[in-house]
Design a protein that fits this description.
44% helix; alpha/beta; binds S-adenosylmethionine; 287 residues
Length: 287
């Protein structure tokens, strides 16, 4: 067991400091104080953060710390912390560590018994979740999904069956493709919320079914930053045995439905993973 006190120790400390996700006024008083008082600011992109620090009137030493140099840089930062220095870690926007580098430094600090102090503040997924209208308890945050279709689909199958709200981040130039893949897995009336440009002038929420949103983006190009939220599956997942799933798939195949479509249909009906059903179906037909 490790017991760690954030306050009252005079040694080195790592502060995780959230920064605005688009609206400068969202910097907290405490974040500003820590950024001004820390010995160093470890920033993902010193140029981007330099602009922010200039705007909030903080002039302090920055050290670059991003996913490409984190492995070599972490031991150097640990040495500074061990010598009693304080470091404020920031990312380009929002909470460090949330879909941002930072985790490696947190882990290294914990390993060396260096206190880690987390400051509350803006994060895109929490901002979107509470205005989505979907139940916020429970929710699952996925960060960025893998890009390949074959790796993305199992995530959509999981979200399709989930009784929790699902949240992920997506880049605007990939959004249309992602929505069209979601459409192949979700029922057409599944409710989706897209939270766009949060806290900025063009902030908006696009709420609708997966079919409505895919149709909307056939006419409109996605622009800006997006958080994608999927409503919880409100239909109780019917409990079903493995043999029944295979029997229903076989029945459809016997009726002339292609194997692929039969698996897709049965998986959708019972909210089970298409890939898992595929494996089970094939195992069942090998023996
Ligand atoms: N650390 C950040 C946080 O706490 O939310 C996330 C950083 S991640 C590298 C960047 C992604 O977050 C964007 O591609 C977008 O999906 C989402 N995001 C960040 N700012 C946003 C905003 N203002 N509106 C909507 N989504 C945003």
């Amino acid at each position: 067991m490790q017991r760690q006190s954030s306050f009252g120790t005079n040694g080195g400390k790592l502060y995780l400091v959230p920064t605005p996700i688009g609206n400068l006024a969202d910097i907290t008083l405490r974040a500003k104080t820590i950024l001004a008082q820390a010995d160093y600011i470890a920033a993902e992109d010193t140029r981007t953060s330099g602009i922010l620090l200039e705007k909030i009137g903080v002039h302090n030493k920055m050290i670059s710390f991003h996913k490409y140099n984190s492995q070599e840089r972490a031991p150097e930062l640990i040495k500074l912390l061990q010598s009693g220095k304080t470091i404020a870690e920031i990312s380009d926007a929002g909470m460090p560590v949330i879909s941002d580098p930072g985790y490696i430094l947190v882990q290294a600090c914990l390993k060396h018994d260096i206190p880690v102090v987390s400051l509350p503040g803006p994060s895109a997924f929490a901002t979107a979740l509470i205005a989505s209208g979907f139940d916020a308890q429970p929710f699952t945050y996925y960060g960025f999904l893998p890009r390949k279709e074959s790796e993305q689909l199992p995530f959509f199958e999981q979200m399709s069956a989930a009784s929790a709200t699902s949240i992920f981040y997506e880049a605007p130039h990939r959004l249309k493709k992602t929505l069209s893949r979601m459409k192949t897995v979700f029922k057409p009336d599944r409710q989706i919320v897209l939270a766009r440009e949060l806290t900025k002038i063009h902030e908006e929420y696009l709420r609708g079914t997966i079919s409505e949103l895919t149709a909307y983006f056939e006419e409109n190009e996605p622009r800006g930053e997006f958080v994608v939220l999927v409503s919880p599956n409100s239909e109780p997942v019917q409990s079903v045995s493995e043999s029944q799933l295979i029997a229903e798939t076989t029945e459809l195949v016997n009726q002339g439905v292609s194997k692929k479509d039969a698996i897709k249909r049965v998986a959708k009906t019972y909210g089970v993973s298409k890939n898992e059903l595929y494996d089970r179906y094939h195992q069942g037909h090998e023996s």
